[in-house]
From TrEMBL:
Pfam family, one: PETase
Top-rank taxon: Bacteria
Keywords: Hydrolase
Designated name of the protein: Alpha/beta hydrolase
Coiled-coil stretches: none
GO molecular function per UniProt: hydrolase activity
Domain PET hydrolase/cutinase-like: 115-191
InterPro entries, per database record: PET_hydrolase/cutinase-like
Upper lineage: Bacteria, Bacillati, Actinomycetota, Actinomycetes, Pseudonocardiales
Length: 272
């Protein structure tokens, strides 16, 4: 167990701790060396680590998620984000395939001059917007993935809703209460209701679709909302807690409360 997680007094305490950087130094690398554009963040060293492949939203560069990816690495989770399929008409199936390839690369090669390795049995898919939908597509039929996270998920073609029925691993959906791009009622809620395994759907009440992003990009002119530090802080804590529990076997009531209990500024809409 991380020393920082011992002695936590409840979900509020856990959120405060897990929304801050963890005890490890994070390194940044480039996925381009294996033929896929994108970034990878990893702890400075560690063997048998957990890993997550993260899918970007429509038009978004992977760098807009560096805040979250780097944060996960400081808590001992390798986080990689392919930068493919960023055009106006992306292939959702192709993007899902790239997420699978990214996870396979993380698990199949030593990173950081051989000082970092990933345990293929401790892996997850995650993503924002269409990247969340692609994460569901990637997880469908994947034999080793242990968890899935979507953030303000958007429906995809092939259907993420149909794919969700075959995903039996624990899934966390984070929805934005003020999302006008992919409102939860037409996206996160039906996908969560179709889940083939344990699922938590939590709404961040004041968040917008783009509140999860960092920095400035020309696509901000096309999408409502704007990057929000409070939304990112809350997301860091919630996603880190879920992945530590599901991939790293971290346990305890404070962590469980943060995953599926009461958290200020949010509401659990569905749980199974």
């Amino acid at each position: 167990m991380h020393a920082q997680l011992s002695g936590l007094r409840g979900g509020k305490d856990a959120l405060d701790q897990l929304s801050r950087p963890g005890p490890l130094t994070a390194l940044r690398g480039d996925l381009g060396m294996v033929g896929i554009p994108g970034v990878v963040f990893a702890p400075e060293e560690g063997l048998g680590l957990a890993a997550v492949a993260f899918g970007h939203d429509w038009l978004q560069p992977a760098d807009r998620y560096a805040d979250l990816l780097r944060h996960l690495a400081t808590w001992g989770i390798v986080a990689a984000a392919p930068g493919s399929h960023r055009g106006a008409l992306p292939s959702h199936a192709g993007f899902a395939a790239d997420l699978r390839t990214t996870l396979d690369v993380c698990a199949g090669v030593r990173l950081g001059d051989g000082r970092i390795s990933v345990d293929a049995r401790r892996t997850a898919f995650a993503g924002h917007g269409i990247g969340g939908g692609a994460a569901i597509l990637a997880a469908a039929g994947h034999s080793r993935v242990r968890a899935v996270v979507s953030i303000a998920i958007a429906q995809t073609r092939p259907s993420a809703l149909d794919a969700a029925r075959t995903v039996t691993v624990p899934t966390l959906h984070l929805a934005a209460g003020n999302d006008t791009v992919s409102p939860a009622t037409g996206h996160a809620e039906p996908v969560a209701m179709a889940a083939g395994g344990p699922v938590v759907l939590r709404t961040l009440k004041k968040a917008t679709h783009t509140g999860f992003l960092d920095g400035i990009h020309w696509s901000d002119l096309l999408l409502s909302g704007s990057p929000d530090a409070k939304t990112r802080r809350l997301t860091r804590g919630l996603v880190t807690a879920f992945l530590l529990r599901e991939l790293c076997d971290e346990t305890g009531a404070p962590l469980d409360e943060l995953v599926d209990g009461k958290v200020a500024g949010t509401e659990v809409v569905a749980r199974s």
